Structures
1.
Amino acid sequence: MKKEGSFFEDAQEVAKLIPHGRVSSYGAIAKYLGSAKSARMVGWAMNATKGKEMGVPAHRVVNKQGLLTGKKHFGTPSEMERLLVKEGIEVFEHKIVDFTKVFWDPNSELM
DNA sequence: TGGGTGACCATAG
DNA sequence: ACTATGGCCACCC
């Protein structure tokens, strides 16, 4: 794959690569970047994209539990799950239903 | 320059 | 089962 040179930019790239109607996790992206422990930085990268470009579907990135932990960082918390539902993803109580089904792992799918 | 923090994850007690 | 702590990288004060 292409090497941006930083987790920050790379995380944003991977986020853009997430297919429509699919979701990914911070840990999966972090692992794809090479460090499974740096999942926190992925979230930080998403936060940066927020004020950068809207081309990065940060709403498609959730935690391993399928919980929309980062919804609070959006303009409005409802925005995140609203976008997910709009794409056909079932969300219940800020949690993604059938998370394993819509889960998109860059390590397996993209690789 | 140094330290704290952050949308996480995994391991240990 | 739950709580505590370590780890990782980048950013802000």
2.
Amino acid sequence: MAKAICGIFDCVRCDHRAKGKCSGCVLENHTVLAEGGDACGIYLCATRKNIKSCAVCRDAVCSFTRNLEMVCPLRGRLEKKRCYSRRLSEHFDQKSAWVRPESLPKIPEKTIDRLQSYLLALNEFISLGVANVSSSDMSRKTGVKDYLIRRDLSQFGEFGRPSIGYDAKRLRGCLAEILGLGDEKPVIWVGALHIAAEPGLLDRFSDYKFRIVAVADPNPEHFQGQVGGMEVVSLRQVAEKISETGAVGAIVAVSDDLAQDVTDLLVRAGIQGILNLAFVGVTAPAGVCVRNVNIVAELLTLSFICRRTHEANILDQDRADIAGPVEAENSTLSASA
Amino acid sequence: MAKAICGIFDCVRCDHRAKGKCSGCVLENHTVLAEGGDACGIYLCATRKNIKSCAVCRDAVCSFTRNLEMVCPLRGRLEKKRCYSRRLSEHFDQKSAWVRPESLPKIPEKTIDRLQSYLLALNEFISLGVANVSSSDMSRKTGVKDYLIRRDLSQFGEFGRPSIGYDAKRLRGCLAEILGLGDEKPVIWVGALHIAAEPGLLDRFSDYKFRIVAVADPNPEHFQGQVGGMEVVSLRQVAEKISETGAVGAIVAVSDDLAQDVTDLLVRAGIQGILNLAFVGVTAPAGVCVRNVNIVAELLTLSFICRRTHEANILDQDRADIAGPVEAENSTLSASA
DNA sequence: TAGATTGTTAATCGATTAACAATC
DNA sequence: TAGATTGTTAATCGATTAACAATC
């Protein structure tokens, strides 16, 4: 029986390996084992993704230990057995050895949004031929404070090296991995108008590995049953189409009055995430993620902020005027008493 | 000389009246004085908008005092004069008499977003014929906690009555006022593709008093110089068109590579707020508000959240499995030692 | 070794939640 | 008066900022 390459677990007999995935892996390790020989998925995952490994790589300190608990949920179990504990402590530093997180740490949405801007910045740096970037380099490009960048990144692992910074290409790879840019994400688009108008739209989404696998519309006949080379099905066929294509996400771009009905339909058909582009918000039961991108709402918020900034400026000006020329008092105002 | 109707200020001689607006008014009082007779703008504003007034309305306690400082920036000045202080304290309760806010309180964007959902909820209640709604009614409809609704609203004034709730129509009016739904907001649209595709789009914006006063495009010839009954001008003519139409806001719906250039162009032309719909973010100098509505970014964030929820569930399941059948240990795993 | 830069721990800030006095 | 509901004050929570030890 082949010994596991990492020297700690007998991965060959691990049922997680048999399942072809490491359940807790935040780095979407789902397909690694399918290709592997005798090496365990954790090792393959770590090296493939350029993440420092523990027992194999040459780095003196394993920087992956902090996340190992996530990568393999069996670890906590092994540590409690005396026969394994010695080997474990040989390979992993003590501070994280007995920590067992109750659940995956919650990542705020704001952080995710920022990760995306880091990715864009890295693309620029790489196209400029920069090999290493520091958090302050990225801060200048993105406008996000350097310590916040470091803090955001450190939630997912240790990607940088003190005094050197981050390897731009490696970090880009890791961010793409974290954001799931590498995986195909099958999506159904409901409401064919936008696609009909902008033929290149589907391709633009596929750049980010969102593959529009189906298009539906309340009135497929308006489009002669097809747009951009794709069949347009009716709302009645949506559920069937979803199970056929395996779509997990949906973009809802129908009229305001249909938005909620279409959402309900999609939820019943088992869609897990919905992006709603109508001018009204929609809701879904717990377990289904919904994001409402309401352009009118954004515009209203924008207009509110503009107006308020404007008024605050005028108010400040008035205050300055009053504080300044005191003698002007009598000329501009008198009491009614 | 006409005495001011509120009995406190001699508004007729107030230079703010001459200017035709009350600078600090959060309720967009800018046009009130133009129509008024001898009554001061503050009084007109308060009654017209159904906000409780102080010296004229019959309510024993003036609930508007908290905001009066904002409404008329001259108040603080008058209070410091002994001859006015008695009259002031007759009309306004003591607790707010000497408070002088340094600036307009900052309203978080999240609050603005919520105000819009309150407005939608109120519309529903009103269409159902409901006259009074409590914060818990609204909470049920919007999903926002009742105390948060009350807190949000109280930042703009006192709109409710204890034990009765909020007058639905009145509150709707106030919210519309606060959000600036009553005012025409002239906007220029750059990138004609969306409009060409969706002929009714401009009308949908005008429902919220966003009036698209001009349309520009990098290639106006693609549209034979017009879409939806509007002339399409080239990017070169944008600045001219903006000053001609008085557009204060802009919607940028051009290709990713042009988005930043168009933004810069608009900023130079004096636009105050920009809504960017490209798949990349744009930046503008301080003083210009920018909102990036990046659909791909939203979709990525959505997909991240879905995936993470999914993985957290699996992890929990695994933990439950491990905690449960201990005897299964030897059958699924063995050590390599 | 000195300077630079990371990842982490402690302090601050802001938003939400809870509690409650005031009011109808 | 009792019950309901507001607007506000205090407590909690979470995110950002600052400070710094560890590392290269």
